[in-house]
Design brief:
This protein is mostly helical. The protein has one domain (about 15-250, about 315-475). It is about 65% helix and about 5% strand. The protein contains 14 helices and six strands. The chain has a two-stranded antiparallel sheet with strand order 1-2. A hairpin with a 4-residue loop joins strand 3 and strand 4 (about 280-285). It is globular, with a radius of gyration of 25 Å. The termini are far apart.
Length: about 475
């Protein structure tokens, strides 16, 4: 396979993965949020929680569908552009993807229809149960994907056959690898934090517009409250992910730190421009001893530099270096907004501080940016390996692909994804702008037994006009 075709294949896969991960990063947390709203509505009976549920359910459905479609396309590329990876690691990756289908997809396929269309047709407890099962399905999907990716990051529980095929020898080591149990919580918390800030930002937006006062207050309070707890937890788990990287992927860790030579004690480069030509950092701002403290929890520890590794085994430096700092910066900014916002809510001053509401509204992309840059750090930092230390990226690609073939599919993917993304985001924006106006608050008995697929309240020959009782329109 020529180098241009390989580069285009990597760009294509990076593009599809980046497009896909936006939606799980949103829907995993949003599914849990729907469970909370449904539970609060059943316990308190307050219609405001029901209106919020109906509002976010529609947004969840659109984002969930886009995530499923983009995920299928991403999976196909293992066979088209990365057939050698599929052939050599299929005995491990294939079963892991199958486990995802048997657990996550089975739950989502079984209960998603109830979530969308079962209101008034099933008991209330079963409807809540269906919401929980959909949320569990999205979580399990993330789990199996992270098991798969974590095995590629640090392969365990396998042996190589004479033909170079990876054969599983210990599934418990693969599934319960310690790497999984720091990376999976890190991804799960990223999804929850992303959803929390989207919810808080929506509440701030409507509060700025002076609309949906009760709903806005709940979204703002609960979104910032969740973020205030989860962001510190995410920073802690992120440190544990850094520990695993430091111990098991030292070349990636050195690239993230832009550390070219061994240092003892090691300084921490806060910001610089890594110069791979001269193997040095231009315009660097560093703090002495901090690098050793972060890497080894010691002020005098020796930290390994990139020059300790063969040039062919070193990852690129610029992308992991900046991506990691953007991710951390987003996390610290979200922490500041969440804590200060909750303080102002506690003091009862949030509505009077318009600048803070604007800042919270503008914060909605931070979770997505942090998630994407985190993945860029992990995946680019793993290079030149697809299976770390065992299978190079150049060996994993389909050998007979040509540059025109890959260029054609890359252009097609780019156009289609841009159209889908634009249409999906435009529709979600319309739903967000319309606000939490419930359109399906009905008693179970109002469905028409002669028309089991009809909407609640839609009797044969009746119009679709909906009227709401007075209590429904109150907070």
């Amino acid at each position: 396979m020529d180098t241009t075709a390989l580069l285009l294949s990597r760009i294509q896969f990076a593009g599809t993965v980046s497009f896909h991960i936006i939606f799980p990063a949103f829907t995993v947390g949003l599914a849990a949020w729907l469970c909370v709203l449904e539970g609060r509505w059943l316990v308190s009976g307050r219609p405001v929680y029901r209106r919020l549920f109906d509002f976010w359910r529609g947004i969840f459905a659109i984002a969930f569908g886009m995530g499923v479609v983009s995920g299928i396309v991403m999976a196909f590329q293992f066979g088209t552009n990365w057939s050698e990876l599929s052939r050599r690691t299929g005995a491990i990756q294939g079963p892991l993807l199958l486990y995802e289908s048997f657990t996550a997809f089975a739950l989502e396929a079984s209960f998603f229809g109830v979530l969308m269309f079962g209101r008034g047709r099933v008991p209330k407890w079963f409807y809540l149960f269906s919401c929980v099962m959909v949320a569990l399905g999205t979580t399990l999907s993330s789990f199996w994907i992270m098991v798969n990716n974590s095995w590629m990051q640090w392969p365990v529980g396998y042996q190589l056959s004479p033909s170079g095929v990876f054969e599983p020898t210990d599934w418990s080591a693969i599934i319960f690898s310690p790497v999984v149990w720091v990376r999976f919580p890190h991804m799960l918390l990223a999804a929850y934090v992303t959803s929390a800030f989207c919810i808080a930002a929506t509440g701030a937006w409507h509060m700025l517009r002076g609309a949906f006062k009760a709903e806005s207050a709940i979204m703002l309070r609960m979104g910032l409250g969740l973020a205030a707890v989860l962001v510190p937890a995410q920073l802690l788990i992120g440190h544990l992910v850094g520990d695993y990287t430091h111990d098991k992927q030292p070349a990636k860790f050195a690239a993230i730190e832009a550390r070219w030579k061994d240092e003892q004690p090691a300084s921490e480069v806060l910001i610089a421009w890594p110069n791979e030509t001269t193997q040095s950092n231009d315009y660097a701002i560093s703090l002495p001893y901090l690098g050793s403290l972060i890497g080894s929890m010691s002020l005098t520890a020796k930290e390994v530099g990139l020059e300790s590794f063969p040039a062919a085994n070193r990852p690129p430096v610029v992308i992991p270096f900046f991506a990691f700092r953007i991710m951390v910066g987003c996390g610290l900014l979200m922490l500041a907004l969440a804590w200060y916002g909750r303080l102002q809510i506690f003091r009862g001053r949030i509505e009077t501080q318009r600048w803070l509401l604007i800042a919270i509204f503008l914060s909605f992309p931070l979770g997505f940016i942090a998630t994407l840059t985190g993945w860029f750090t992990a995946e680019v930092g793993r290079q030149p390996w697809t299976v770390y230390g065992a299978l190079r990226t150049t060996e994993a690609a389909t050998p007979f692909l040509t540059t025109p073939q890959v260029a054609a599919t890359l252009i097609i993917f780019t156009i289609v994804y841009c159209v889908i993304f634009t249409a999906g985001v435009a529709y979600i924006y319309r739903l967000l702008r319309r606000g939490p106006v419930s359109m399906s608050m009905f008693d179970p008995g109002e469905t028409n037994p002669k028309r089991p697929l009809s909407l609640p309240g839609d009797s044969a020959g009746a119009s679709g006009t909906v009227t709401f009782p007075a209590e429904e329109m109150s907070p």
